[in-house]
Amino acid sequence: MDLVLEGKCVKMRAVCNVGVRFGRVAVLSVSEQIWYLYALRCADDSVYTGITTDLHRRVDEHNAGRGARYTAGRSPVRLIGAWQFTGQSAAAKAEARFKRLSRARKLRLIVRQQPFRGAPFEGNSLDDGPAAQPPGDSTQPSHTI
Hints:
By secondary structure, the protein is an alpha+beta fold. It has two domains: 2-30, no CATH class; 33-145, GIY-YIG endonuclease (3-Layer(aba) Sandwich). Helix content is 23%, strand content 24%. The chain is built from four helices and seven strands, in the order ββββββααβαα. The protein has a three-stranded antiparallel sheet. A hairpin with a 2-residue loop joins strand 3 (20-21) and strand 4 (24-25).
């Protein structure tokens, strides 16, 4: 579904409440848009975190070298976890909080598929396989994380 907000066409992945009242269409504001906090596993085994409205597009941008400067030299990257938020502000606040976690805590949240800051774990939304679990990681405690 496409929405036009402030002159820009925005692709919406989630079904939203759009009602028609008195001949006008009620449209979600940008602040109510679905945003994702995502975690990527880089080729050097580091974990990168960011926010986006479109997981597929953003991972493709990272792998093409057009994402963040950090991931440009660490491709290919793979989506290992994502959490869904309503609004950019909520996602950005969650990202700042997530980045302050230790690497071990980040990976534990991902492997255990736990919610974060009230948002449900979305897993690896790019495919239906068990890829939400990072390679080499297991649900058993490990001293190599």
